[in-house]
Amino acid sequence: MKLLKNSFIHIFSVLLLLIIATFPLVIFNMGDRVAINFEGIFEEMKQFFSGLFTGSSFYYEQGDRIRSILTDISRYFKFSFFYLFWSSSIILLLSFILGIYFWRQSNKLLNNFLGFLGMIPDFIFISILQILVVIFYQKTGVRLAKVATPSTEDPAILLPLITLVLIPLIYIVRTLNERTQDVLREDYILTAISKGIKKRNIYLYHVTTNVTPFLKADLHKILAIMISNLFIVEYLFNTGGITALLFQHQMKFGYQYNLVIFCFFALFLLYVLLFFYLKMLILLVERILRHD
């Protein structure tokens, strides 16, 4: 029953995505009212699916040129995956360190400095980082990091990673802090303390294995935050990822339904790959600790 329910949700989500992607083509401003061409929704979807069999849906226009979506999207996908892969890995590592092992210290830090940073909108935070790097370079002649990506061969790495890591890290560390406090109040933890078991072993083998289920449950939220931040990061740092193909190309060459759909599915693939990657890492940590 659960499998059937999940399958229905996924099918409905895909269908809703296909419909939403048609809106720029079927919604018109008629002056005093907004008109929707409902027939156009089904027509666009019909052309897309028929194009999957004829092959026309796998190509898009770039000015006077016709290019292969699958060929080009792989290059954009690679850049987005690079930033999300490393930022998610850093988040997972720091969530264990700050959220579990040093939860007292990180709790104080989050309530002050990091908590303040978390309230700053992403585009303002990025601008502040870029300005500080430029000022530091002007004063010292030392370039701490690239403020943008001048070319695909010379990408900005440090600042985009910092931006992608910050907000999800604040969220997950705060959550794990609360769960760690709850676990430390449990009777079996108090019994372990009374028996004189070392604090390191209590945190490593008892607290961690009872907190990681909450971390796994929040993976969906973490990745949702990261991918939503990716839109701003890739635009302001000019990193040339999937969102550049999704938005900047549409503004320059016009809206193309098939290209948008493939970009959406590429973002979904990013989500799925990173979700299973992080979940496998957490399961590996749990397995090692429980069989140590």
Automatic annotation (TrEMBL):
Chief localisation class: membrane
InterPro entries: MetI-like (IPR000515), MetI-like_sf (IPR035906)
Topology term for the membrane: Multi-pass membrane protein
Residue intervals passing through the bilayer: 7-28, 81-102, 114-137, 157-176, 222-247, 259-285
Coiled coil: none
All copies of domain ABC transmembrane type-1, residue ranges: 77-278
GO cellular component: plasma membrane
Keyword terms: Cell membrane, Membrane, Transmembrane, Transmembrane helix, Transport
Recorded family membership: Belongs to the binding-protein-dependent transport system permease family.
This protein's name: Peptide/nickel transport system permease protein
Species name: Bacillus oleivorans
